[in-house]
Each structure stands twice: as structure tokens, then as C-alpha cells.
Write the C-alpha cells for this entry.
Amino acid sequence: MRELEVASHFPDLSWRWYNDIPLLKGIYHFKTEYRGVPLQDSFNLEFNFPVDYPDKPPLVRELDNKIPALFHRNPDGYLCLCTPVEQHLTFLQEPTLESFILNLLNPYLISWLWYDSFSEMPWGERRHGSMGLVESYRDLLKLKDIRHTISFMLEYVRNKIHHKESCPCGSGLSFKKCHGNIVSKYENSLPKGQLIYDFVYIVGGLNEKYFN
Ligand SMILES: [Zn+2]
Ligand SMILES: [Zn+2]
């Protein structure tokens, strides 16, 4: 298993088994440079692998609370590396432990170490819950605002988008000439079930704000 080899690059991480479920645990020594600033620390981490791994990415806990709970941690205790849809799309590009560490975990640690030193985020951050999720979709779909994003998602979820008809983004162009390409880019990587799930979550969360 390739994941076992990857772990050997990190001598202080080791595999354990709990009820037939593999866990990768130990000290992760992280050292990098960002904008010319050396960043370095060691973290006591536990990687959990969901049963449908590698369809779904691993989940990571930081066991020593070096990173405070208020800094991007989910209510279930796992690190909030980014929004679920961004995590899904990033991990899907190369669903391996190595790429997970490189493309999701390390950027998270950079943002923490940077924040810890300078009290600001090195790049933007997403809000938690439905706001962050809808902002992710807004950016993925290159839409203007949240309102357009929600109505766009609604039309998509209801199968109401037709190639020759006008694009639900409101540009006045046909869907084919407007958002058709962006949507087809994500069609294979974002299962419709996931989109519906996210849409329901977004609408549920924003209900008070936008629909009352
Ligand atoms: Zn977060
Ligand atoms: Zn459009």
C-alpha cells in the first residue's frame, strides 16, 4: 500500500489499528518558508481514514491543542482544513495521503503558524457553516454574489438548466455560452448527490437571513 510508504517519510508517525480501522498517529514535524518567513513547529496528529477512503479524504485531529479550537476546528474535533466542497475537489485531483498532506494539511498549518505569529491570515479564510460553503460555490461557479449562487444551484438541482436557454446567472447569454463550461468542468468531480446535500445545508443555514 502506497500510503505505508508515505508514512515512512515521516519517521515519528506510525500506523495503529483500532477495531480493524487504520490510524496514522504521531508527531508531524513541519518546516517551511512562506513569503520569506521560516515557519516551523511539530504537531501531535492523528489521521483517521473514512471507510470510503480514498473517495473521501482523511480527517485529522491535533491532539495537544497547540492549535486553539477557535482556529478552524470543526465541532467534531477534526481540523477544518477548508470547506467540504473545496476539500473534496482538491483531494480528488490526487487522492493519496501524500497529496492530502501537501495540498490540504500543510496549507492549513501554514495559515495557523502565520496567524500565530502575525495575528492575520496569510490568505483569505472561509466562514464556517453555510456561509463559507456558499462562498465556495460562488467562487467555483464564478458568480457575483450569494443570491445568484443560491438561485443558480436551485436551477441546477431542479434540472432546470437547458443549454440553449438563458443562463441562470442572469447574464442574458445562453447557458452553453456562459456557465456551461464551468458546470461541465465540475460535473464529473462533484456528484449531484453532494451538490443537493450542500444546497440543502446552505439553504437551511441561510434560511433566517435570506428567506424570511
Ligand atoms: Zn474553518
Ligand atoms: Zn452564466
